[in-house]
Design a protein that fits this description.
about 70 residues, two-stranded antiparallel sheet, nucleus, 2 strands, mainly alpha
Length: about 70
């Protein structure tokens, strides 16, 4: 596992094939990346009226002078 650059965990218990380990590790990495917080799309801003927008929408509306 160390040679493959994969941390050893219970997820890999009883897996003996290198190909299976690599496939499982790719799946685990994809799930971890999907659950990470992305501030550009998930950060929220509130205007004076209490409306909540994501960062991109808030910046666009502010640039247009609507907020």
């Amino acid at each position: 596992m160390h040679r493959l650059g994969i941390p050893n965990s219970k997820s890999f218990y009883e897996i003996t094939s290198i190909e299976e380990v690599q496939r499982l590790w790719e799946t685990i990495k994809e799930k971890q990346e999907a659950s990470e917080w992305h501030p550009g799309s998930e950060e929220e801003f509130e205007d004076e009226e209490g409306n909540v927008y994501n960062k991109k929408t808030y910046d666009d509306l502010e640039r247009q002078g609507l907020i």
